[in-house]
Amino acid sequence: MLSLARAMLGRVDPDTAGLWPRASALLGCRALEAAVQRLWERRTLDLQRCPMRVQLICLRTYLEDADLAARAGHAWSALSRACHHHAYELAPTAAELRGWLSVVEELVQKTD
């Protein structure tokens, strides 16, 4: 998922110019959620039923890297917000998406 999200950042297609940022954000958000789920499964913690915001708060304790956990929480919030279209909000820029996806990649590496 993460590699597809990154690949979308390089797309130059006028027909889909407004769609790729949201699609990239959706894939990045899902990759982050999957990484968190893998961590809970490895630690045999039953947190899957909790809302993702709660899981990200718990991540600060179980990840052993509070800074990464905080950045992952911010990235998830930003990616989640970017997945939804609001007429009054601009789509995220490629630079913003790259930053959030780099946090997701760091989390994926840490949880694998």
Strand content: under 5%
Radius of gyration computed on alpha carbons:
14 Å
How would the global form be characterised? elongated
Q: Largest sheet, if any?
A: none
**Alpha-carbon distance between the two ends:** 15 Å
The H-and-E topology, N to C, reads as: HHHHH
Mean pLDDT: 89
| Helix content percent band | 55-70%
Number of strands: 0
Oligomeric form of this entry?
single chain
List the domain count as a whole number: 1
Secondary structure class reads mainly alpha
Tally the helices.
5
User: Which stretches of 5+ consecutive residues score pLDDT under 50?
Assistant: none
List the helices and strands and how they pair.
Elements: H1 2-9, H2 20-42, H3 52-62, H4 66-83, H5 94-111
Helix pairs in contact: 1-2, 1-5, 2-4, 2-5, 3-4, 4-5
